[in-house]
Design goal:
Helices cover 30% and strands 24% of the residues.
């Protein structure tokens, strides 16, 4: 059948349906992209399966820790110590008795002193930042003043029973060497030069502070000599003897000290 010149040819955009095949079905309309984006944006984001597993594991672990702490609080579970805690081991040897002696001294007074020792050791014409060893030490020590009754002569004690009187001649009080109290003594600061620090890295001297201790001990001992401890010791010794002989029935007690 010939086409009429007045009828236009069918195009691809508008195909002519075949009468035998039936009417043409239009393709489904594609929804606008904006609608799809809006729907996706409005829907809430849900965590992935791995994230939900992590949250569940953390929750279970927190419950287990809380339960263990609660059981430890009521002393149901034993307490576990830190496996990396500091540990101190005492490997000291048994104490060895070196000497023993009988004392016949009466400690009549003592004094506690404190001294600040600033000891520096350096070299002439060498800068301090190269060679320098300076220690600042606070020392606290006690000095005792005592009367030695073991050195009394045979005529040191004179007793008059008829008069109920006694005369005692004693040696002068003696002073002991200062004993440092290490619980109250401490090193404030130490300064060392560059070469000193390098030398200490190869050779460590555990007795290098011994000079500081000895100096502090000597300073305290010397200071106690002019502190008036000897006069206090004489007065305390006299009071002690007067009280002792008064209880024995003596009405007159005379105590004298010989010259040092």
């Amino acid at each position: 059948m010939a086409n009429s010149p007045d009828v236009e040819e069918p195009t691809r955009e508008y195909p002519v349906p075949d009468e035998a095949a039936g009417p043409a079905v239009p393709p489904p309309a594609t929804p606008p992209s904006s609608t799809s984006d809006d729907t996706t944006a409005d829907s809430p984001s849900r965590p992935s399966g791995f994230a939900r597993l992590l949250i569940f594991t953390a929750f279970v672990f927190a419950l287990i820790v809380a339960a263990c702490l609660g059981l430890r609080a009521v002393h149901v579970l034993p307490s576990f110590s830190n496996p990396f805690a500091a540990k101190t081991t005492d490997r000291s040897q048994p104490v060895l008795l070196q000497s023993m002696r009988d004392l016949s001294r009466y400690v009549a007074a003592d004094g506690t002193f404190q001294v600040i020792v600033d000891l520096q050791s350096d070299k002439n014409n060498i800068p301090d930042f190269l060679i320098n060893d300076r220690t600042l030490f606070v020392g606290s020590g006690t000095v005792e003043e005592y009367v030695d009754f073991g050195s009394l002569s045979t005529n040191a004690l004179k007793i008059d029973d008829t008069r109920k009187s006694v005369t005692i001649t004693l040696p002068p009080p003696q002073q002991s060497t200062a004993a440092l109290d290490m619980d109250k003594s401490y090193v404030v600061a130490e300064q060392r030069g560059l070469l000193n620090r390098i030398g200490d890295a190869f050779k460590n001297d555990p007795n290098k502070q011994q000079k500081v201790y000895q100096l502090a001990q000597q300073r305290i001992t010397d200071a106690a000599k002019g502190s008036g401890l000897d006069q206090r010791a004489q007065a305390n010794t006299q009071k002690m003897l007067e009280s002792l002989f008064a209880r024995l029935g003596f009405t007159s007690v005379s105590v004298t000290f010989t010259n040092p």
